[in-house]
Structure prediction request, 69 residues.
Amino acid sequence: MINISKNNCLSNGESRGEIEIITIGDEILIGQIVDTNSAYIGQLLNMNGMSVKQISSVSDDRAHILKAL
Prediction:
């Protein structure tokens, strides 16, 4: 379950920071599955007045995950 709150927005509706969605999984990178989660999360954020600036996908490799964060 995803809980998105408008508490992450300033009083004028602007986001407190830049939002990036990071998906993790080798299966995404090789095209074995389609990343529908990013679209869903992006839509929820947008509906709550938040703006996604970037979507990234990284492999299951720990070093790649840490670098993305």
Q: What stands out?
A: Helices lie at 26-29, 37-47, 62-68. The first strand starts at residue 19 and ends at 24. Residues 37-47 form the longest helix (11 residues).
